[in-house]
Amino acid sequence: MDMNIPINENKNNENKKKILIVDDDPDICVTLRKIFEQNGFMADSFMEPILALANFKAGLYDLLLLDIKMSQMGGFQLHQEMKKIDKEVKVCFLTATEMDFEKFRKVKEFYVLDKERFLRKPIESKEIIREITAILNSVSRG
């Protein structure tokens, strides 16, 4: 199965929140997509940030869930490029360390992001659903 092809294009899911997962770990992509779909969300995943960017369109997703450290393009750079296409999409970053949050909070584009926008891997299913739901229901955008 090609992990880089969006799988949910069913028109019956119009009211569901749609999440884009970009992580170069195929296990994380599959696991998160299953968790989200089992909890009433629609989810697409890409292992290649460049391909995710090429397929990204304004208004298509409610939330971006981006790994910070990927080989082709990091999550922060990918977010900057996606924000040029859709200024309204919300974002949450996946990180393996707390240092990523502190390091990138100093970057001008990200200083306004809350610590809650950074989820540390590994993360329990219930916790990620709770955090993602809170972000999606928040008033502020990406």
Topology, element by element:
Elements: E1 18-22, H1 26-38, E2 42-46, H2 49-55, E3 63-67, H3 75-85, E4 90-95, H4 98-105, E5 118-120, H5 125-137
Parallel strand pairs: 1-2, 1-3, 3-4, 4-5
Describe the 3D structure.
37% of the residues lie in helices and 17% in strands. Helix 1 (26-38) links the parallel strand 1 (18-22) and strand 2 (42-46). It contains five helices and five strands, in the order βαβαβαβαβα. Mean pLDDT is 82; it is low at 5-11. The chain has a single domain (16-136), classed as Rossmann fold (3-Layer(aba) Sandwich), CATH 3.40.50.2300. It is α/β, with parallel strands linked by helices. A five-stranded parallel β-sheet has the order 2-1-3-4-5, with helices on both faces. The protein is globular, with a radius of gyration of 14 Å. The protein has helices at residues 26-38, 49-55, 75-85, 98-105, 125-137, and strands at residues 18-22, 42-46, 63-67, 90-95, 118-120.
A few lines on this structure:
By secondary structure, the chain is of the alpha/beta class. The protein has helices at residues 26-38, 49-55, 75-85, 98-105, 125-137; strands at residues 18-22, 42-46, 63-67, 90-95, 118-120.
Kindly state the percentage of residues in helix.
Answer: 25-40%
**CATH level-four homologous superfamily name:** Response regulator
The portion of residues forming beta strands comes to 15-25%
Number of domains: 1
Largest sheet: 5 strands, parallel
Q: How many H/I helices?
A: 5
Structural class estimated from helices and strands: alpha/beta
Tell the overall outline. globular
CATH class: Alpha Beta
Please identify, by name, the CATH architecture.
Answer: 3-Layer(aba) Sandwich
E-strand count = 5
Topology order in helix (H) and strand (E) letters = EHEHEHEHEH
Cα-to-Cα separation, first versus last residue = 31 Å
- What is the average per-residue confidence, as pLDDT, rounded to a whole number? 82
Integer-rounded radius of gyration: 14 Å
Task: Find the CATH topology.
Answer: Rossmann fold
Low-confidence stretches: 5-11
Strand order of the largest sheet: 2-1-3-4-5
